Amino acid sequence: MGMNDIKGIGTDPDAFERFYRAHVRAVEGFVARRVGDPHSAADLTAEIFLAAIESAAGYDPTRGTPVGWLYGIARNVVAQWARSSARERRAISRISGRALLDGDGLRRVEERLDAELGARQVYVGMARLSDDERAVLELVALDGLTVADAARVLGVQPVTARVRLHRARRTLRAFVTSESPGSALKEVTS
């Protein structure tokens, strides 16, 4: 897909369809790694493509690949969604967090919590990272971008992104103990 195709996605339905088909799975994966609710994930994916249409005329191929450009848009859309819905989620969690569970329901929740211990420890460790370190780690380890593409998405030099990635991985390795399940940690820190 050429630069002219991207710049034309706002005015040419065929160009948009080609662009959408080429990148929808990447965007869906990006969103799914950050949002657990399937309805919200679908809405956010649509919003990301709408935002891409609105900003397509300003696409600059020297600032990164089309998927990197989309990930930059996606980061903004997801961050805005998280900020705008945080208050609502807190209120809902206060109300529903104490709902009564029957014996089977409680066992399922406990099993799910046990199964996700390693992932939770990685997320706790990631919370200790600076926003800049966490952003580059997510783009490289979770979204599969190269360090150079992640640097473009974040608007920093590749060497800066490499340093942030190294620091993030070092911090996570130090935080997550050798006793925790290693699969989630190995994926993020290697």
TrEMBL record:
Domain RNA polymerase sigma-70 region: 19-87
Domain RNA polymerase sigma factor 70 region 4 type: 126-172
Natural source organism: Occultella gossypii
Coiled-coil residue spans: none
Protein known as: RNA polymerase sigma factor
PANTHER family referenced in this protein's UniProt entry, alphabetically: RNA POLYMERASE ECF-TYPE SIGMA FACTO, RNA POLYMERASE SIGMA FACTOR RFAY-RELATED
Family (UniProt): Belongs to the sigma-70 factor family. ECF subfamily.
Keyword terms: Sigma factor, Transcription, Transcription regulation
